[in-house]
């Protein structure tokens, strides 16, 4: 309980992660799409435009611009500590949840996600992703996100290996592999992450885990096929969508390329 030092020392009751809640329906109308890729099996290609590259003075309009073409709206929360940039927080997520029709895909690039992540789920996010490098109790936090009815995601920076997190797959709904160093939009895609995307897809397939594999950073019409071929199925794109004259058209073009590459 904020402001109550005693209450913060008390262990919260264990959340029941197994029970689906009505709020989980916020995750959107996204179902698996058969895909002929020999390695991928069945995946659904999803596009999550990042509002980091949108006009912050007109966020509701920017959300509406991709409402009929995208699957999610990616919301980059940065605290100027975990990353050297400051963006937005809970009040804007709450406001966007009311104003936008797409489910919110909140990517928390913040210190102490264990403390803050559940509040983003409570604020209406359909998916909440925390960074492995910042979380001190990732299992407890991921369970807490799920118990609030949101999908739980774990993000890894480019230099963070996937292998130490293999046992956490059952706790996850999504793995996010950063394809730039987090903090800013418009950076160059890091090809060095491609082998990790492949290894992660193999891990998910081998363990038959129901985990989406998201990539974020430098995803464009030029790079999305490489990511899809390597096994990604959820694609964040900021500048490639909101830097385009026609954001909805850009989403469609990205989706078409990813589906072609995966299928
Ligand atoms: C970067 C953010 C990304 C960013 C991507 O730290 O997590 O979501 O918006 O922007 P682009 O697609 O322009 O690289
Ligand atoms: Zn992001």
From TrEMBL:
The active site is at residues 76, 216. InterPro entries: Aldolase_TIM (IPR013785), Ribul_P_3_epim (IPR026019), Ribul_P_3_epim-like (IPR000056), RibuloseP-bd_barrel (IPR011060). Substrate binds at residues 50, 107, 183-186, 216-218, 238-239. Keywords: Carbohydrate metabolism, Cobalt, Isomerase, Manganese, Metal-binding, Zinc. One of its GO terms (cellular component) is cytoplasm. It is an enzyme of class 5 (isomerase). Pathway: Carbohydrate degradation. Its cofactor is Mn(2+); Zn(2+); a divalent metal cation; Co(2+). Residues 1-31 are annotated as: Disordered. The keyword Manganese applies. Binds 1 divalent metal cation per subunit. GO terms for biological process: pentose catabolic process; pentose-phosphate shunt. A divalent metal cation binds at residues 74, 76, 107, 216. GO terms for molecular function: D-ribulose-phosphate 3-epimerase activity; metal ion binding. Belongs to the ribulose-phosphate 3-epimerase family. NCBIfam families: PRK05581.1-4 (NF004076), rpe (TIGR01163). Catalyzes the reversible epimerization of D-ribulose 5-phosphate to D-xylulose 5-phosphate. This is Ribulose-phosphate 3-epimerase. It comes from Marinactinospora thermotolerans DSM 45154. The lineage of its organism: Bacteria, Bacillati, Actinomycetota, Actinomycetes, Streptosporangiales.
């Amino acid at each position: 309980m904020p402001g109550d030092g005693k209450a913060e020392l008390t262990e919260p009751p264990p959340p029941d992660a197994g029970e689906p809640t009505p709020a989980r329906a916020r995750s959107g109308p996204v179902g698996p799409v058969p895909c002929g890729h020999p390695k991928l099996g069945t995946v659904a290609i999803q596009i999550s435009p990042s509002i980091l590259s949108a006009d912050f003075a007109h966020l509701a309009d920017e959300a509406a611009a991709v409402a009929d073409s995208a699957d999610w709206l990616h919301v980059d929360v940065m605290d100027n500590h975990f990353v050297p940039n400051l963006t937005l927080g809970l009040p804007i997520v709450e406001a966007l949840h009311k104003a936008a029709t797409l489910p919110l895909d909140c990517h928390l690039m913040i210190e102490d996600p264990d403390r803050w992540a559940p509040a983003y789920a409570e604020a209406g996010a359909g998916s909440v992703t925390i960074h492995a490098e910042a979380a001190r109790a990732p299992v407890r936090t991921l369970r807490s996100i799920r118990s609030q009815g949101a999908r739980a995601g774990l993000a890894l920076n480019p230099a963070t290996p996937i292998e130490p997190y293999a046992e956490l797959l059952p706790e996850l709904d999504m793995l996010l592999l950063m394809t730039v160093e987090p903090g800013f939009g418009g950076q160059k895609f890091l090809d060095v992450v491609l082998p990790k995307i492949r290894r992660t897809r193999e891990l998910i397939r081998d363990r038959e885990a129901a985990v989406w594999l998201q990539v974020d950073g430098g995803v464009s019409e030029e790079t999305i096929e490489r990511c899809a071929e390597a096994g990604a199925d959820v694609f964040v794109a900021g500048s490639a969508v909101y830097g385009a004259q026609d954001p909805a058209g850009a989403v469609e073009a990205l989706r078409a390329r990813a589906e072609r590459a995966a299928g």
